[in-house]
Amino acid sequence: MPKDLLQDNDVTIFSFNLAVHMELNNKKIKHEVADNLLTLDERLDLFDKIKKLESWHSQVPGNDFYLEKINLLKIFQFQIYKANQYS
Fold this sequence. Notes:
Strand 3 and strand 4 (about 70) form a beta hairpin. The protein has helices at about 5, 20-25, 40-55, 70-85, and strands at about 15, 30-35, 65, 70. Helix content is about 50%, strand content about 10%. The chain is built from 4 helices and 4 strands. The chain is mainly alpha-helical. It has a two-stranded parallel sheet with strand order 1-2. The chain has a two-stranded antiparallel sheet with strand order 3-4. It starts with a helix and ends with a helix.
């Protein structure tokens, strides 16, 4: 990131996760936490939508994706979550 950009008062830098927030703090770079842009109602609504999306595998009709009473789509979802957690 160009240093002159960090000095520009017309520029607002946002952190979208804890790791970036901590890095900006350590470098003493003025920034805003993106979560602070949301109201409580917006956060609660977003939380509800995310929880619904996380259970998409339970909303698939039929038993085509079950093997010995195990929902294979749920396992697939867990693997995606774990992969994204460390990227």
